[in-house]
Amino acid sequence: MSSQGSGGNVIAALCNVPFPGLGQLVQGRLMGAAFFFLSTSVSYGIASVTLGLFLIVALPLHLWSIVNAARYKG
User: Fold this and answer.
1) Best exposed site among 16, 54, 60, 72 by fewest CB in 10 Å?
2) For residues 24 and 72, what is the distance between their CA atoms, to the nearest angstrom?
3) Euclidean distance between CA atoms 4 and 69, whole angstroms
């Protein structure tokens, strides 16, 4: 995964669509994977209890994880 937009980064970004943090895990970034998975999962969990109110936080976090994996320069 040498440059932004490389095939590896595209695959990592696509991995983040169903599971936030999976793309960072594919790239070997364990702390980033843990952060995105836990924060997004907790946000979606709270959103399910508060009738979607917390989606204001969950959706941007999910999108951030996708963009973060796509723009990674490792």
Assistant:
1) 60
2) 9
3) 9
**Total count of domains within the chain:** 1
From CA 29, how far away is CA 56, in angstroms rounded? Answer: 26
Residue 37, domain member (yes or no):
yes
Token pair, residue 31, equals 């702390």
- Tens digits of residue pLDDT in 25-60: 999 999 999 999 999 999 999 999 998 888 999 999
Q: Is residue 26 part of a domain?
A: yes
- Identify the band that residue 1 occupies on the pLDDT scale cut at 50, 70 and 90: very low
Both structure tokens of 22: 């999976």
In a domain, 29, yes or no: yes
- Both tokens of 60, joined, read 């941007």
